[in-house]
Write a structure and sequence with these properties.
This protein is mainly α and 479 residues long. It is built from 20 helices and two strands. The protein has a two-stranded antiparallel sheet. β1 and β2 form a beta hairpin. α7 runs antiparallel to α8, α11 runs parallel beside α16 and α14 runs antiparallel to α15. It is elongated. The two termini are 25 Å apart.
């Protein structure tokens, strides 16, 4: 009960401070700053992201095609062209003629554009193009999918592909046909094509036993990850759930949800470090610590109350920030937010946007606790607020860059035990989520540790800091 009373007193002091109110305002402003940035992106990009759902070429594009055809025809009249340049020129001429004849936009990325490329290859190789030209003329997407399946079967019959390659290819074509992926040049097709590419990459890795990204043999854990990846991406297609990291994402709400935690958590971290860095040194410098020393309260209880107060402060700030982030996203964006998907016992599960956002913020806040403990430890040892705060803030800001440099030049296993290499827990708790930290600094041998390993390293660090600060606070004179 004494600790609880001390805890209440510490919270009253913390929330009454002007600096606390300023920090809360700064956190709110950081969210609105991200909102303004995303809205600016939306305004800037809306003129460039034009989707033509009927895939036809506009008047300006037709004029462009006519000029290009005229240019390439004049080029072919030049007898001094080398063979390679002539081949490329003939290829481009045929392609632009087909675009113009069949009214296809050269800037799209649809099944018609793919078919034009294939027809050009057929013509260059002297093959019959009657069937493919008929597909292009009829503009029937389903017939194109069936034609692709026929070509795939011919490859199987000619033993140019294995039966597993055939089955994988057939699965991809079935998905394209079912969800009309690549049929039109619209926003939905962009993220769905990216999903199809991920499924193909996972199929290739499982089929060959080699990770396509690393070119290394996959182990049992990676095999399961690839199998889960296929299930998750098929679930996205079936339930029309876009991936936030799809390469051509124009869901600006997802952009906001990606950037907001990075900025707001940074502000919260600095706010907590400032408070934690002065939690002991300020009271010693002002003499208020003498009051606590003269009461029946034991010193370890005073320290515990202060630590619990800081932890409670972190929880409240993160909760308010996450809820405010959800509120801003719901008010200012019409799109749906990210739904987090994961596999459990071979079955795809999902976490709704609101709950996922709150959980994501709290996972991102775990490193704040570590830096707060570090600041309190310095405050207790040095009894100097300036030293505790400035050193802790510098370490918080600079640790990512420092680790990036160290990990690039040192490839020893002991680097994995450096606490700063284990701070990014979001990629381990939410492995299927897009994380800005990983996008900025990447993943390497030093950071690709398991969740248990990272928690153990951080737990040992926290324990050592707690022992140090309690020992210093209990044994040193504060009167």
């Amino acid at each position: 009960m004494k600790i609880f009373k001390l805890f209440i007193d510490e919270n009253i002091k913390t929330w009454k401070k002007l600096s606390t109110k300023i920090m809360i305002i700064a956190i709110i402003l950081s969210l609105f700053a991200v909102l303004a940035l995303v809205k600016f992106m939306e305004k800037t990009e809306e003129n460039h992201l034009v989707y033509n759902s009927d895939n036809s070429a506009g008047e300006n594009e037709k004029e462009f095609l006519e000029r290009e055809i005229e240019f390439y025809e004049s080029q072919l009249k030049n007898e001094k062209l080398d063979e390679e340049t002539r081949l490329v020129t003939e290829r481009n001429l045929e392609m632009y003629k087909l675009y113009l004849e069949y009214d296809i936009s050269p800037y799209n990325n649809t099944w018609e554009n793919e078919l034009v490329d294939y027809i050009v290859e057929q013509k260059i190789n002297g093959q019959n193009t009657d069937e493919t030209l008929a597909l292009l003329k009829n503009k029937n997407y389903n017939n194109y999918i069936e034609y692709q399946k026929k070509l795939l079967k011919q490859q199987l019959d000619n033993n140019t592909i294995s039966e597993q390659e055939y089955n994988d290819g057939l699965t991809i074509l079935d998905l394209k046909g079912k969800y009309e992926i690549g049929k039109n040049n619209d926003q939905e097709s962009y993220w769905k094509r990216n999903i199809i590419q991920k499924i193909e990459n996972a199929q290739n890795s499982l089929r060959t036993g080699i990770n396509k990204e690393t070119n290394k043999l996959i182990n049992a854990e990676e095999k399961k990850d690839f199998e889960d990846s296929i299930k998750l991406n098929m679930y996205r297609l079936e339930n029309n759930i876009p991936d936030s990291n799809n390469g051509s994402n124009t869901n600006y709400r997802m952009r906001f949800e990606l950037l907001a935690p990075m900025f707001s958590i940074a502000v919260i971290s600095i706010a907590i470090i400032v408070i934690a860095g002065g939690t002991i040194s300020n009271e010693i410098s002002t003499g208020t610590i003498k009051f606590w020393a003269l009461t029946p309260n034991k010193r370890w209880k005073i320290m515990t109350a202060k630590l619990l107060s800081i932890l409670f402060y972190i929880i409240i700030l993160v909760l308010i920030t996450s809820l405010l982030s959800v509120f801003i996203a719901n008010v200012f964006f019409a799109e749906d937010g990210e739904t987090y998907l994961y596999c459990q016992n071979g079955e795809v599960k999902e976490i709704g946007n609101t709950l996922y956002t709150i959980e994501y913020y709290f996972v991102k806040a775990i490193p704040i606790v570590i830096f707060a403990l570090f600041a309190v430890m310095l405050s207790t040892i040095t009894r100097n607020t300036a030293v505790a705060v400035s050193f802790s803030v510098a370490l918080y800001i600079g640790n990512g860059i420092a680790m990036q440099i160290i990990n690039q030049f040192i490839t020893k296993d002991w680097v994995k035990f450096i606490p700063f290499n284990n701070l990014n827990l979001t990629t381990k708790i939410f492995p299927n989520a897009t994380d800005m930290t990983s996008m900025m600094f990447g993943t390497n041998f030093a950071t690709s540790t398991s969740l248990i390993f990272s928690l153990a390293v951080l737990g040992v660090c926290a324990f050592l800091m707690l022992v140090t600060m309690y020992d210093s606070f209990n044994k040193r004179d504060i009167i």
